[in-house]
Design a protein that fits this description.
about 110 residues; mainly alpha; about 45% helix
């Protein structure tokens, strides 16, 4: 009676050890895959700055992987400040008429 219980316990322990090792291998594989996956891309979007880039907007955009300015920039300095944070794509708005704005397209494809 005790011998049977001891054998069953040993078999169960061996099975659980094998399952635990299999689970550990699966977790190691998942960790390896997770490390190779690209994380989400954060895109900052703004428009109508009209030459004024508020500190709150800069702080919100900090950490963006890419920034899109959708027009009415108002001043080339706005784009310079944004480029200090991340790559920028900008389009010219109807108020962007000065010489600096001529180099900015009216439309862009992303």
């Amino acid at each position: 009676k005790y011998l049977f219980a001891a054998v069953m316990l040993a078999l169960l322990m061996a099975r659980f050890a094998a399952e635990a090792e299999r689970l550990a291998a699966v977790l190691r594989e998942l960790d390896a895959r997770k490390a190779s996956l690209k994380t989400a891309t954060r895109i900052g979007l703004l428009s109508d700055t009209h030459g004024l880039l508020r500190p709150e907007a800069l702080e919100f955009l900090r950490g963006s992987d890419f920034i899109v300015h959708a027009g009415d920039i108002g001043d080339a300095g706005v784009l310079e400040a944004l480029r200090a944070l991340a790559p920028v794509t900008a389009v010219r708005g109807n108020n962007d008429r000065d010489g600096w704005a001529r180099a900015i397209a009216e439309t862009e494809a992303l």
